[in-house]
Design a protein that fits this description.
alpha+beta, four-stranded antiparallel sheet, 33% strand
Length: 459
């Protein structure tokens, strides 16, 4: 008996040998079919009280959660959950989540596999088959309800529960997405900052597209002259401000690629991480100067940090840290996974004045510290009450060796040079990008408030 299955969207034949995580994707239209439990391998089979239907409901709810996380901007957690559901690789999960995040549809269909009779005689359609077919039909109806109704239910209760107005419109061509709901506390945000640790020096910005206004600001950089540069995640918009937050000008980077991070050097150059590249712009005018070289043409850059001597430290998708000198010479300092002798996904890095490298794990949460020659030194981080660490968004290091980690639940966690937890800044706010100037002032992007907030550390 040969197992055959056709795509429900375009009727093209599907190759079950390509199934991953209990799913098979149509090579023609991209529709993804969820296989019934009986057609999965043991590694992906989910045992539930309701059998195949229970498997469907379980995965459908999880996939709806992935879509919600992606559309709210929590890309790291969405990728982690997608990989947990499907068992696919990082790139496949990243592509699917980015499609959801940009407003595109990722189509899923639940189906049992039809058996084509290739033997001389087979029993006629029986009650067991009828029950499976009925379950499949009911499952498909439930899937439609879950994917089209559940996200709105989640948004409604999240809105009522947190008292926040969450926009439910789809992402626009400029990439605007709903606000991320941060955990709320009964005490003011400033109360979570230990007395004497830091105070708000200034803040600027508001919601909008005008001068000094932001739609989805997630990256910030400070140049040697004190100018502040703020990048929008979608649309390529970069605004320049003076050290007091007064608007100077704006310019556009690549409009079609997500802007992952900004960095600035002491000469007024701004480095933009987009589309796997690091592009250098003149900060005051937005004139494109050049593109940072790569060790090989297949490298994909995820992040960049500027050292005091003007050299760049870039993080690749292969977890290599590459040093790019001012003359354009590239040298791989370390492969982080080889240095750790374990497989970890990294998203951001920072370099201090001594050349010490700090990298944050995409999903695991800890900070990993490496010597200038790439030798692993230590790992540290602060877990919540459940013992888990929130996925981090950004990292920065100041002139005193203090390390700052931003995430959704803790604002900014502060550690001393030895990795000891000092305290929290801006607790209760969603902080993405961070940058530190020569006076050890910390600049943060508080995306949901559409503001850039500067903190002065008092000790």
């Amino acid at each position: 008996m040969a197992n055959l299955l056709n795509c429900s969207a375009c009727a093209a034949p599907l190759d079950l040998a390509t199934a991953k995580g209990g799913m098979v994707r149509c090579p023609y239209c991209g529709n993804t079919t969820l296989l019934a439990n009986e057609k999965r391998d043991d590694a992906t089979r989910i045992e539930t009280a309701n059998g195949s239907l229970g498997s469907l409901i379980d995965q459908s709810v999880k996939l709806a959660e992935v879509a919600r996380l992606a559309r709210e901007g929590n890309k790291i957690e969405a990728i982690r959950l997608y990989r947990e559901i499907t068992g696919c690789g990082l790139k496949e999960a990243k592509d699917a989540v980015e499609q959801m995040e940009s407003g595109g549809a990722v189509s899923f269909t639940y189906s049992t596999v039809q058996a084509k009779d290739t033997s001389p005689a087979m029993p006629s359609f029986n009650r067991s088959q009828a029950r499976r077919t009925a379950r499949a039909g009911l499952g498909l109806l439930l899937l439609i309800a879950i994917f089209f109704i559940l996200p709105f239910v989640i948004i409604f209760f999240a809105t009522r529960g947190f008292g926040l107005l969450i926009s439910t419109r789809s992402a626009t061509a400029q990439g605007a997405i709903p606000a991320i709901a941060a955990p709320r506390s009964s005490t003011p945000a400033s109360a979570s900052t230990p007395a004497g640790l830091a105070s708000v020096a200034f803040e600027f910005g508001s919601k909008g597209i005008g001068a000094g206004q932001f739609e989805d600001a997630r990256s910030v950089a400070v140049g040697g002259e004190g100018n502040i540069y703020v990048g929008e995640y979608s649309g390529g918009r970069v605004q320049a401000f003076d050290s007091a937050g007064k608007f100077i000008t704006q310019w556009m980077a690549d409009r079609d690629s997500a802007l992952l991070n900004l960095a600035a050097d002491r000469k007024g150059n701004v480095y933009v991480v987009q589309g796997g590249k690091i592009l250098r712009y003149e900060g005051k005018t937005g004139r494109l100067i050049d593109e940072a070289p790569k060790p090989d043409r297949y490298e994909y850059y995820n992040d960049v940090s500027v050292a005091l001597d003007g050299s760049l430290y870039a993080l690749t998708q292969k977890t290599d840290v590459v040093r790019i000198s001012s003359s354009g010479e590239t040298k791989i300092i370390v492969n982080l996974n080889k240095a750790l002798n374990e497989r970890v996904s990294f998203s951001k890095l920072a370099v201090d004045g001594k050349g010490t490298i700090y990298a944050i794990a995409t999903f695991e949460g800890p900070v990993f510290k490496f010597a200038p020659d790439g030798r692993f030194i230590d790992r540290f981080g602060k877990a919540d009450e459940s013992g888990r660490m929130s996925p981090p968004f950004g990292i920065a290091v100041d002139g005193q060796g203090r390390v700052y980690i931003s995430n959704t639940s803790e604002g900014v966690q502060v550690f001393d040079a030895n990795g000891e937890y000092i305290g929290n800044i801006g607790g209760g706010e969603v902080v993405f990008g961070m940058a530190v100037n020569d006076r050890n002032e910390l600049f943060t992007t508080q995306r949901n408030r559409a503001k850039i907030v500067g903190y002065a550390l008092n000790r």
